[in-house]
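Quick question: what would this complex look like in 3D?
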Amino acid sequence: MSTSPDLQRDFEYVWHPCTQMKDHETNPPLLMERGEGIYLFDQEGRKYMDVISSWWVNLFGHNHPRLNASVQKQMERLAHVMFAGATHRPAIDLAESLVRLTPDSLTKVFFSDNGSTSVEVALKLSLQYWAQKGHGEKRRFAYLQGAYHGETLGALSVCGMDLFRKPFENVLMDNLEVQGPDCFRCPYGLKREACDAECFEHMDRALNENHETLAGVIVEPLVQGAAGMKMYPPVYLNKLTAACDRLGVHTIFDEVAVGFGRTGAMFVCENLGLKPTFLCLSKGVTSGYLPLAATLTGEEIYRAFYGDYEDFKLFVHSHSYTANPLACACANETLALWREYEFPGALEPKINALRAGGKKLSELQWCGEYRQTGMIGALELVKSRETKEPFAIGERVGYKIYQEALKRGALMRPLGNVIYFMPPLVITEQEIDSMIEIAYDSIRAVLGKTESH
Amino acid sequence: MSTSPDLQRDFEYVWHPCTQMKDHETNPPLLMERGEGIYLFDQEGRKYMDVISSWWVNLFGHNHPRLNASVQKQMERLAHVMFAGATHRPAIDLAESLVRLTPDSLTKVFFSDNGSTSVEVALKLSLQYWAQKGHGEKRRFAYLQGAYHGETLGALSVCGMDLFRKPFENVLMDNLEVQGPDCFRCPYGLKREACDAECFEHMDRALNENHETLAGVIVEPLVQGAAGMKMYPPVYLNKLTAACDRLGVHTIFDEVAVGFGRTGAMFVCENLGLKPTFLCLSKGVTSGYLPLAATLTGEEIYRAFYGDYEDFKLFVHSHSYTANPLACACANETLALWREYEFPGALEPKINALRAGGKKLSELQWCGEYRQTGMIGALELVKSRETKEPFAIGERVGYKIYQEALKRGALMRPLGNVIYFMPPLVITEQEIDSMIEIAYDSIRAVLGKTESH
């Protein structure tokens, strides 16, 4: 047990998210004091590289003078005002920018507070749209195995991972889980770089058989994050949007994790020229400063809710802090920084450095696969390269490597047996090299001791 | 249509919450520029009293130097860090304070981002608790008619208002709606000041008949906010907690709206000496600056999730910005201000001024009832005092009064036919008098023209 009075109070009063609190008896959390660039500093001045951008949110580093100034400036005017019957320039500017940065078909922005709520808003808009169009029978959603779209009960009902949904299984909406891409262990024996998404056949069948009762399909474009940074090729998304458009099923692109440059482009849908019915954004929108989310959609949806008040077609959904001005101001500055840093172009050398690092990690005998999409790199550890046999969950291999990496100055929280890199976009090539070295050494420190095949 | 370029952009890009967007063709939203104390100022410098605290969030006024400084100071250290595997003093301090300010039985704080998520967390903790105790059959929740607990689909499944739930009815959890108090139109012909909550018989029966399948009961203590500030006496809550404790059903107190001083006490549960299983807080926690929420519970619940990692009893729920340090710092300063302003004692004269104002409003022939709980006052308008016949929703009486009040310098957004007052706690007695006068004049301006009985 920690002897730090602050950590003792933490243990006494705080219940941390996604944490077995008993683990804190032996491994207390880091007590973070300050941040600077891509580094975090704990109470004793120890420095940690924020390898996963504090749960995939930070883009431009901690304590960025420009982001600080944007929040401060707005705070001196107006920290918050209700967003029904009132509006403010930070929200208007942000909405206009998001509409301009995303596909032309997306024209309206509905704000909320986090990724879960951005998904809830999309699900609810889709359901109410169909009901108001006289298709109340369209009330289910299809989602992929391994999907993660948040943890409020609506968002959880389109989650394809037992870890998150199992204790709540019997109260969730009756949705449709569909086998999706599994490129590392491709059942067709294909490679994602060259395949034609043969695995789409499952979704194709599901859509053809169920489109009359399906309101929409939700998907994490290109990278299934919580599933272990599982990556799949764009052709899957091409097929998905084409089939949904043909069959009258909404497409919900959840770019909460992959949006704002993580894949090397600002947004996946825009980069691939795809036109989802709904686009969900959060995380990076404030560069990791403040909670904020947005759900974008187009005129076809918007018009279905537009009418005289007495018709009661309006969308009744609200959160008190909708479009919080401080968060919106920070988001506007985030977009300004994106241009000034000359992203996405300036990301290219970083992406290449990460790829070179991945090559080094691939030499490790426990590397089942190193995969990369833009600024996201992931190493899936296996007991055997030949059989791709995974380590048992109970071995907590990832957790042990995480502990080793902490000793070496990197916060590298894993997803099961997947060690991944999703650093702030401002990371330098040299820092990428250091990050890879720490990962390499930490993996060897843990697995070098184990028997290997 | 507005000729302001900013408002035109608002209309083009922004979808506002709980708003029929067509209304903005004729009544564009106020474009707010800055706030100062209890006042908001629009782009043309017009001043509006924030009568409803920007959706019930603001406690100490806008642009408060102390709150600004607290956010600024924290921002210079650390705006955010992930809350799994890491922690920080602002969150630890806030958790400790909340535990100290609430009933002794509440010992642990789980943070999230808004009222909806604080409720989702309570529902999920309750469900998983029962499942882990071998009572998977306890998977429904009871809630009151008129209840509002948020709008994510889980929270919406315990909502007792058609306005919010109807379009989503067929995908919501199968929960149990129970007839609750309706003091203005009491079916027993009693008065809330003197009754024994005879209406509890409905809940009593529901609990006795369903306790074996009920995980919990959720309730807005003393004031059902969205239902129109419906107020009921403490004895109902005494009976509810006693019955639930006896029958093994969790109690969830949703103090998102009434917490942080609105009722004249910091929290209802503490003030009444009641011990709910879960307590949900948000809104006022940051005095209306930033989104933040907390769900509190006690050792019995906590221990059921505590164990070795391999047992998978942990609570898997997270939001990226959980326990955002900026919001936590602002919340800590909010609690410091509460002490320095000598609340709740110093609220007494304000509460009395509001009561005097209510007396004046009661003289209006359309006043069905003026009711008040602490710093919340509400006037229910009726066509006839004798029959209590309500105005038809289509008449939009409340909306018209709201428009009249805007002309007179007050943002007084109603709930249907209920005009209510939930001002920042720092409002002065003189300002309360002005607020009442504006309400009085605005009601007369709209209803003075109508035929009355």
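Answer marked as accepted. The CA atoms of residues 138 and 212 of chain A lie 6 Å apart.
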